[in-house]
From TrEMBL:
Coiled coil stretches, renumbered: none
PANTHER family: WD REPEAT-CONTAINING PROTEIN 55
Gene3D superfamilies with a match to the protein in the record: YVTN repeat-like/Quinoprotein amine dehydrogenase
The protein's name: Uncharacterized protein
Species of provenance: Aegilops tauschii subsp. strangulata
Swiss-Prot/TrEMBL WD repeat ranges: 59-99
Repeat among keywords: yes
Length: 155
């Protein structure tokens, strides 16, 4: 964490290293009071933004490196890994409540569509999936593209 002030040099307030391996995904949660990180060490960590102290840790959250995180609601987040798995986590229980596996390669991006309670996900395998949280199933998946799909946004 750094402090920026006009006309003053950059000031480092603290350094945090919550993971053994590289951090690949970062999201603010709890109205910006905590930061959620996903790592190549397969863990998800929540840290206090003021102190950098670890609030919660899910070791071995996935069987492969985590590279994407998306906040779904105040109490749920989704994570995607290098093996094409998407997991949905209940932050109150610190447990996995949904798992989707339709992709053959890494999850490159995800977005949550609140109105339909679905997660859209793109993958290095060149497909887009629509994952229904209510039915806990993959609703549909696109045809394979010749190129990797790297991001998704609802327009």
């Amino acid at each position: 964490r750094f402090r920026y002030a006009d006309g003053l040099p950059l000031e480092r307030l603290f350094v945090a290293k919550p993971h053994k391996d590289s951090c690949r995904a970062v999201r603010f949660v709890d109205s910006g009071t905590a930061i959620l990180t996903g790592s190549a060490d397969m863990s998800i960590v929540a840290s206090d933004v003021e102190t950098g102290k670890v609030i919660a840790r899910l070791d071995n959250a996935h069987d492969d490196a985590i590279n994407r995180l998306v906040c779904l609601t105040e109490t749920t987040v989704a994570s995607g890994d290098d093996d094409g798995y998407i997991k949905v986590w209940d932050t109150r229980q610190r447990s996995c409540c949904n798992t989707f596996h339709r992709h053959e390669d890494y999850i490159s991006d995800m977005t949550y569509v609140a109105g339909s309670n679905q997660i859209l996900a793109t993958s290095g395998d060149g497909t887009l999936s629509v994952n229904n949280l209510r039915g806990n199933r993959v609703k549909s998946q696109s045809e394979f593209s010749e190129d990797e799909l790297l991001s998704v946004v609802v327009m």
